[in-house]
């Protein structure tokens, strides 16, 4: 979840979310990745950001339903997306034709697909809090009935905190000698858990990048799951026990996802109950679980609670890594020297301390342009191995760990073919949890 910046930061920092965003974007900062390669670049945020108190002008409501799980009114708003440009649509239509012909050889030359356009879809709780943002492609099949097809674009991560979670979490794994390229190629059977679903951009991104990954998602609110399926292009087949009103064709998942959806399992359950009865051992866990009042439930970070104890047992004992999205609960001074480092208030510090207590080591990174913090908890013995050598060379433990993480950024970027650089998300406001 991304908190509206003005409610967490001072006006000086909030300005970075509007007119200064393009100048501050990774593309403009002279990084090695060009903005055209990343459809989720922050410079596009003006297309979908809306207003602090609502969706803003030009938004179309495509889903609206009341939640009984504490999220209030769950809505999805649509905004036109400028990329991909219309001249690139025929290539995608050809891809759909070819995929359809492989599934239904008898329909070759009969079924035709036409793209209607690309949109940003933004989920909000109570019309205020932006819960998640995805990009979808909408097209239609010219023959048959119920021919509308809606597909979330799994390569697009529109929100910086999701990129921060991916970058920080994945660079920690090779630091603990986990072979990331083998998981990408499918030689390793990687297991990932996502607590909190939103629009589903993170699990879809991971499933599309890791051929060897089985991804389990836990979401307590069936209305959130319905919104992701009906309005945000998430495949319906991974969801168990959901009564969906989707008008998408029954074969949409097979047509669009080519088996990716078969490695995703979405459980509508309470995270505490799920982890208590789960038997899987996870290599990587992502937690982004805020309710309609923007509260991170205490039971998900209470050091003495059942959830944390069970989670510790479910994470791999050598390289297991847990990544948590947090919101800064302190005001940010309106001075330039504070713009890359967010202060951690009492509550955030307590959360970080709880995860460090259970996993041995933890670090944080401040998310660019948003008042979010990425917390990574991992097995300290693995990630910090060699720190003694660093100390003899005059490196602090903090600098040694940061250097080790940064040295793996290129491994992650190349293995996954990322359209954005990991390095800036890892080093931004980096701090060890003491």
List keywords for this structure.
single chain, 434 residues, alpha/beta, Rossmann fold, 8-stranded mixed sheet, 5-stranded antiparallel sheet
Total DSSP helices:
16
Based on the structure given, which CATH architecture of the domain at 159-432 is correct? 3-Layer(aba) Sandwich
Structural class of the helix and strand makeup? alpha/beta
Level of helix content? 25-40%
Summarize the helix and strand pattern as letters. HHEEHEEEHHEHEHHEHEHEHEEHHHHHE
- Give the class-level CATH name of the domain at 159-432: Alpha Beta
**CATH fold title of the domain at 159-432:** Rossmann fold
- Spatial order of the strands in the main sheet? 8-7-6-9-10-12-11-13
- Shape descriptor reads globular
Gyration radius, rounded: 21 Å
Overall pLDDT level: 85
Indicate the low-confidence ranges by residue numbers: 4-36, 331-343
Q: Got a strand count?
A: 13
Instruction: Please describe the biggest sheet, giving its number of strands, its sense, and whether it closes into a barrel.
Output: 8 strands, mixed
Query: Distance N terminus to C terminus?
Result: 26 Å
The proportion of strand residues reads 15-25%
CATH superfamily of the domain at 159-432, called what? Vaccinia Virus protein VP39
């Amino acid at each position: 979840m991304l908190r509206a910046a003005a409610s967490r930061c001072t006006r000086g920092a909030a300005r970075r979310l509007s007119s200064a965003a393009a100048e501050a974007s990774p593309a403009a900062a002279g990084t090695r990745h060009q903005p055209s390669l990343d459809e989720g670049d922050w410079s596009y945020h003006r297309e979908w950001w809306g207003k602090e108190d609502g969706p803003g002008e030009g938004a179309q409501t495509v889903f609206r339903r009341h939640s009984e799980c504490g999220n209030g009114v769950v809505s999805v708003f649509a905004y036109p997306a400028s990329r991909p440009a219309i001249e690139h649509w025929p290539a995608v239509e050809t891809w759909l034709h070819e995929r359809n012909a492989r599934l239904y050889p008898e329909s070759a030359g009969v079924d035709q697909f036409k793209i209607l356009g690309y949109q940003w879809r933004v989920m909000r709780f109570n019309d205020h809090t932006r819960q998640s943002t995805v990009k979808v492609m909408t097209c239609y099949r010219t023959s048959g009935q119920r021919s509308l097809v809606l597909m979330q674009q799994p390569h697009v991560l529109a929100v910086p905190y999701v990129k921060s979670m991916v970058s920080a979490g994945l660079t920690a794994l090779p630091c603990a000698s986990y072979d990331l390229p083998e998981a990408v190629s499918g030689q390793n059977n990687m297991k990932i858990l996502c607590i909190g679903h939103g629009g589903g951009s993170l699990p879809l991104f991971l499933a599309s990048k890791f051929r060897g990954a089985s991804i389990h998602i836990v979401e307590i609110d069936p209305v959130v799951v319905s919104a992701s399926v009906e309005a945000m292009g998430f495949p319906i087949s991974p969801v168990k026990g959901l009564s969906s009103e989707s008008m998408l064709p029954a074969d949409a998942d097979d047509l669009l996802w080519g088996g990716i959806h078969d490695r995703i399992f979405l459980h509508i359950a309470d995270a505490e109950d799920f982890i208590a009865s789960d038997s899987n051992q996870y290599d990587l866990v992502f937690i982004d679980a805020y309710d309609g009042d923007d509260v991170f439930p205490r039971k998900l970070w209470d050091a003495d609670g059942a959830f944390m104890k069970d989670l510790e047992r479910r994470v791999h004992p050598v390289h297991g890594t847990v990544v948590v999205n947090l919101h800064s609960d302190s005001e940010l001074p309106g001075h330039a020297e504070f713009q890359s480092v967010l202060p951690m208030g009492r509550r955030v510090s307590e959360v970080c301390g709880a995860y460090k207590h259970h996993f041995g080591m933890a670090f944080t990174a401040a998310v660019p342009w948003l008042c979010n913090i990425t917390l990574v908890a991992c097995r300290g013995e693995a990630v910090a191995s060699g720190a003694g050598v660093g100390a003899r060379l005059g490196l602090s433990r903090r600098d040694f760990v940061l250097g080790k993480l940064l040295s793996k950024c290129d491994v992650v970027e190349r293995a996954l073919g990322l359209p954005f650089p990991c390095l800036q998300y890892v080093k931004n406001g980096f701090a060890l949890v003491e």
